[in-house]
Amino acid sequence: MLLASLVIFLLIEAAPGDPAEIMLGTSAQPDTLAALRAELGLDRPLMVRYAHWLGGVMTGDLGQSYTYGVAVTELIAQRFTVTLPLTLMATMLAVTVSLPLGVMAAARPGKAGDGLATVFSQIGIAVPNFWIGLLLILGFAVKVRWFPPGGFPGLEAGFGAALGALVLPSIALAIPQAAVLTRVTRAAVIEVTNEDFVRTARAKGLSRRRALWRHTVPNALLPVVTMLGLQIPFLISGAVLVENVFSLPGIGTLAYQALSQRDLIVVQNVVLLFVAIVLVVNAGTDALYARLDPRLRGRR
């Protein structure tokens, strides 16, 4: 996190543009620009500003947004109530679709189910999620009007309304991830099927179906969990595009708006939050390994 914070700060500082000039306009007087830069702390040395920001992060004070005029902590907390359920819905949908489809394809290679999974994987990987979102809007929001085309009414409008606003974005975000997971699940199940313990179970009279779900699938979950953990960064980056397509006031939209407005303090805190999420998910994935593979529990 410390290394990531330094890299994030230096990269954002290297970006062109002056936040004070963007806020006041190109016609602002030099003394007015200098006063605003002093107010925002932009006139201080580079490493002093970095140390001040890092100290605030460690104490929970992320500073104040240049553009919105509110605390960045409050701003991120508000937007996170949209991005968190969106990401969770997309993850659950991707797992729910990919695991049965991958197992079905691996159980009968070369059959119709395997062909269906292959086509789904190729299309899902090739098509960008923002274009999938546009197609979903045209089909299910404009044509049949089952779901709203965009926006988020807020939790105060009711759970049903909030959930309905996230259905299409979560599908657009989940399809590419489900395509990758389907391919990984298929390969992992086929690999475990050829192991000696599976053949021994079949030789002892266990049916093909029971051997698949009792022995093969549980032992094939480890690479699937690994890939699911690695997909979290892609879900986060995909949320930036999908939230803008559906006009969702989430973290991704906040990052895009802050970057276009040169609201540096918001951008660097949002990116650092993304880094923290990835690190936490990777740590959780490592902890889950021991639950799935008993051979790892005794290792130090």
TrEMBL record:
Q: How does it sit in the membrane?
A: Multi-pass membrane protein
Cite the ABC transmembrane type-1 domain residue spans from the record.
80-283
**Gene Ontology CC annotation, any one:** plasma membrane
- Whether Membrane counts among this entry's keywords is yes
Q: Which domain of life is it from?
A: Bacteria
For this UniProt entry, the molecular function terms from Gene Ontology, in alphabetical order, are: dipeptide transmembrane transporter activity
Quote the InterPro entries the UniProt record gives.
BPD_transp_1_N, MetI-like, MetI-like_sf
> Which residue spans adopt a coiled-coil conformation according to this UniProt entry?
none
In terms of one coarse class, where is the protein primarily found?
A: membrane
- State the Pfam families in the record: BPD_transp_1 (PF00528), BPD_transp_1_N (PF19300)
Give the transmembrane ranges. 86-107, 119-142, 157-176, 220-246, 266-290
Record keywords: Cell membrane, Membrane, Transmembrane, Transmembrane helix, Transport
Cellular localization per UniProt: Cell membrane
Q: Which family does it belong to?
A: Belongs to the binding-protein-dependent transport system permease family.
Question: What name does the UniProt record give this protein?
Answer: Peptide/nickel transport system permease protein
Organism equals: Celeribacter halophilus
